[in-house]
Amino acid sequence: MSAPKSSLPNKPITAERVRSADLPVAWIMMLGLMVAVGPLSIDMYLPALPSMADDFGVSTAFMANSVPAYFLGLVFGQLFYGPFSDRVGRVKPLYIGMTLYVIASILCATTDNEYVLFVGRTMQALGACVGAVVTRAAIRDRLTAKQTAKAFSIMILVMGLAPILAPSLGALFLQFFDWHSIFWFLAAFGALNLLLTKFFFFETLTEENRNVRPAKEVLSQYWDLLKDPTFNYPAIGGGLLMGAMFVYISSASELIMDTYGVSATHFGWLFGMNAAGFVGLTQLNQWLTNRFRILSILRFGAMMQVLSAGTLFFVGIFLGTDAWLPLVLACIFFCIAGLGLTQPNASAIALAFQKQRAGMASALQGSLMFSVGIFGGLLLNLFPLNPVLKIGIALFVLMSLGAFLIWQIDRNLNLDDAE
What we know:
This protein is mostly helical.
């Protein structure tokens, strides 16, 4: 029997409740709030980077390396939580990850050394990433492939508010407090996630569906996943598309605030516009999945991103930093907004045929995204190009590769065949 839509279920799950016929909207929205800790942690402190750089006596570009440091934790943390949650269930990893996140946030709030901050940011990510892994896997545990695509769209509606509001909220904190207050807020948000886990998150992985293969076979299981065409094309393709957004996040402060002289407050609004476009298209995606094949929507969204990134690339070549800021922002907007059509559907396809390794599949997919963010963000700092061209090259190359892989997915793939 499915959980009521109007309430958050808090009873232990039974076999009958797995893969329910109705879409448990309230439960999905709660999962979105749990995942929101990730984008909040990434985006809320971005307006503070210049002031943090002043306090630590370094450049803004150097301080921006704390973003790839965070992504590093996301990559390795997810690879651990995936198989762990497949073995012990979805609840225990949430307790472990969120406790680590709270401790790391307090470390970031109290340090006066930039390298300790980088370590704290990595630890934050090691804790925060559990939400993304476990919630995606829990949705796969309960719902069908088409429901999963809709569920991811609903979840993004909630978690998507984080990148919309986070920079503005961070700028608001800076008006009344210093940058340390941002990390105290994040510690409190992590504590809220612990309470949600305690009172409202029920176990979705039944005993019979748990992965009992020896832990020493984890690497071979990951390798099997990468060889599975029902997983690798949508996961890697979607990972490249989403990873491009994290490359943009790494360079956003330098591009918008340093290059164009936009204030921290206005930066928050401009940054939030991209997230609003992302969230808006995810909600459109719910309507589209009732009328078109998921793969068709995915391909359309990928082409939208490639065309937008290509335009930004040529703007960077011919105009550079003389380019009109609204034009640069418009190109970036459609690159990021297009994720609303690619991410829910790529994730749904990648997870559809995974059952006992849904946690591993969720983890590997997330790690691929953030690996792109790490290496793309670091590579941006190696080339002495104008910031507009650097971000144009990065987005165009990554999104072109992602779209190419999306087109390799078997067009006759029937998601109804997934258990």
